[in-house]
From TrEMBL:
The keyword Oxidoreductase applies. InterPro entries: D-isomer_2-hydroxyacid_DH, D-isomer_2_OHA_DH_cat_dom, D-isomer_DH_CS, D-isomer_DH_CS1, D-isomer_DH_NAD-bd, NAD(P)-bd_dom_sf. GO terms for cellular component: cytosol. Signal peptide: none annotated. The keyword Oxidoreductase applies. This is Glyoxylate reductase. Keywords: Oxidoreductase. GO terms for molecular function: glyoxylate reductase (NADPH) activity; hydroxypyruvate reductase [NAD(P)H] activity; NAD binding. Residues 11-289 form the D-isomer specific 2-hydroxyacid dehydrogenase catalytic domain. Residues 81-260 form the D-isomer specific 2-hydroxyacid dehydrogenase NAD-binding domain. It comes from the Eukaryota. It comes from Geodia barretti (Barrett's horny sponge). Belongs to the D-isomer specific 2-hydroxyacid dehydrogenase family.
Length: 298
């Protein structure tokens, strides 16, 4: 089964047969699109997640696939903390109060009370490169950090003092839950009605992984009914999210337009890595940051 969070039409009709393709964004690179380019040698993803590329077809065709892991981990972890802090401390409602609706007429000590981030419990789901960078930041906030992934990392427990727990336990006890899994069959709708029901009513969910990791209708219901207190999502299903999506009508959710790695410095480095992958793939050489190495007949 192929998973993609994007709904935009494949770009196959717009371009002639290709030798190499660089994808900047998440337009699906479908089997049909790949079929239009019999000489395609390399696909270079500007990003770490490659769920929008039909890797199985590339494997069958011997097409190299590259991505840009690692370089964006710190930047995406910064954005995770930004979303977490903004939600916990009502930054968007504060902005709306003062600058949009011009409601700030006198100092009111009773408005916009948030919740403490320091000394709270953070649950990291899918602790890999980005999750590890988030854990480092959370430790600086004196947070207790729980993590769940399929393979335990005792070295990281030693390094960062993070605690390995079951997925269910993480959801039950965390004040903040952040998602950092890749989008796969297993992680599609990893967070749905049942999982949201396990979370604290005061909890905040941050999804900076991929939109379909969270069932948006279950999230809407949970936010609307106060099953959880708030959410911040950098990624949606679909992308862009429909402007009439019910989630956008809520004031306890922040929706960002997929900005995780979007800084000048990091995007420039990602572009360089992606170009190195593409040039190597076109020459039939090993990709420096490969998902699939070239294996086409020469
Ligand atoms: P990574 O290093 O591969 O980490 C992913 C982690 O998820 C691994 O530790 C893996 O550990 C865990 N995992 C995989 N399947 C799982 C499952 N079924 N249940 C629980 N844990 C699972 O990847 P990364 O570089 O941190 O990036 C993670 C994802 O973030 C990317 O795939 C991408 O989709 C997303 N991302 C988003 C943005 C953005 O702009 N919003 C930016 C960068 C990345 P185990 O194998 O041990 O389970």
């Amino acid at each position: 089964m192929w998973h993609t969070s994007a709904i935009l039409p494949p770009i196959a009709e717009k371009i002639p047969p290709l030798d190499g393709l660089m994808t900047y964004g998440h337009e699906p690179v479908s089997p049909e699109m790949i079929a239009t380019s019999p000489n395609l040698k390399a696909i270079s993803v500007v990003g770490v997640g490659y769920d929008h590329v039909h890797v199985e077809t590339c494997r069958e065709r011997g097409i190299a696939v590259g991505h840009t892991p690692g370089i964006l981990s710190d930047t995406t972890a910064d954005m995770t903390m930004a979303l977490l802090l903004a939600t916990a401390r009502n930054i968007v409602p504060a902005y709306n109060h003062v600058q949009v609706s011009k409601q700030w007429k006198y100092y009111d000590p009773n408005i916009l009370w948030g919740t403490d981030v320091h000394h709270a419990t953070l649950g990291i789901v899918g602790m890999g490169r980005i999750g590890h960078a988030v854990a480092k930041r959370a430790r600086a906030f004196d947070m207790r950090v729980l993590y769940y992934k399929r393979e335990r990392r005792p070295d990281w427990e030693e390094e960062l003092g993070v605690e390995y727990v079951t997925f269910e336990n993480l959801l039950e006890v965390s004040d903040f839950v952040t998602l950092h899994v890749p989008l796969t069959e297993e992680t599609t709708h990893l967070i749905g009605e049942a999982e949201l029901a396990l979370m604290k009513k005061t909890a905040i969910l941050v999804n900076i992984a991929r939109g379909p990791v969270v069932d948006h209708y279950a999230l809407y219901d949970a936010l609307k009914q106060g099953q959880i207190a708030g959410a911040a999502v950098d990624v949606t299903e679909p992308e862009p999210i429909n402007t009439d999506h019910p989630l956008l009508s809520l004031d306890n959710v922040i929706v960002a337009p997929h900005l995780g790695s979007a800084t000048v410095q990091t995007r420039m480095k990602m572009a360089t890595m992606a170009m190195e992958n593409l040039l190597a793939g076109l020459k039939g050489e090993q990709l420096p940051y490969g998902v699939l190495q070239p294996n086409f007949p020469r």
